[in-house]
Amino acid sequence: MVETTIEPLDKKISALRVSPAQHLHGAFVDAGVTGAFGVRLREEQFLTMVGLRVAVGSPDRARLAKIVGAELPARCGEVATGHDVVVLWLSPDEFLVISQSVAGSTLVSYLRAGLSEGGAAAVVDLSANRTTLRLEGPSAQAVLEKGCPLDLHPRVFAPGTAVATNIGRVPVILWKVDLDSYRILPRSSYADYLGRWLVDAMAEFKVLGSG
Amino acid sequence: MILISCPDCGPRDETEFHYGGQAHVPYPEDPSALSDEEWGRYLFYRENTKGIFAERWVHSAGCRKWFNVLRDTVTYRIAAVYRNGEPRPSLDGDPQ
């Protein structure tokens, strides 16, 4: 199989890469609010993301669990933390493996080693498919609630869960990393729209904070 | 807005789903043996039920899986949700 792989750890190439929301960096900084109504937005650039598809009940699952260092998540919302990687549940047979430290091509070759010959499974480097926006602060939940159909109350949406949903009509993966801290993963082409949508949704809290 | 319980993701707003029309329409066993009229009936003719209707939905904003729903076309109330490939569940007072 021929693939275009970009090594984020290669400094020469890294210097030339432009992330999907890089042009909004200044707008994100300006939109930040501190204090009791605080909310901040930034882009986490170039996380490695590998799409993993493996059938329900496949023997490959046990081998893959050994490679990532954790059982694959079993139900909606579950996030499994392994060695240097995090695995998000996308559907019963689809997962997203995310890493900050392992390069895409390396992670792909590690995971492929867990697949049996002729088995119904796929491992594809999707690092360029999505970007990551990090929304943090006491008002983060209120900002998301303006455009997300889910119940985001901590009683229902606990820290350490990730779900696929919509924010401001954009299909995203919403990952609650911690209380008041979210990673939002839109497809790259939506990053500009969603970034501006979030900046607009945050504006109200700047007024509240200054008053 | 209806709240649909995806078999994998749980209750979500209707806006996360797309509609797929009538469920349990089997693909013809030998499509090339059909007359144009029979093929046209398979492609375009569907029930227009008043009451409980078996229909397909896909959770396009979530797990992207297709599943079947029994929905009352008068009240919009969802009577049952079941996975693709499972038989239509029987309900009290449902003429099928």
UniProtKB/TrEMBL annotation, chain A:
Gene3D superfamilies with a match to the protein in the record: Heterotetrameric sarcosine oxidase, Probable tRNA modification gtpase trme, domain 1
Coiled-coil regions, chain positions: none
One protein family per Pfam: SoxG
Name this protein carries in UniProt: Sarcosine oxidase subunit gamma
From TrEMBL, chain B:
Pfam family, one: SoxD
InterPro entries registered for this protein in UniProt: SoxD (IPR006279), SoxD_sf (IPR038561)
GO function term, MF aspect, one: sarcosine oxidase activity
Any one GO BP annotation for this protein: tetrahydrofolate metabolic process
Signal peptide as annotated in the record: none
Protein name: Sarcosine oxidase subunit delta
Organism: Nocardioides turkmenicus
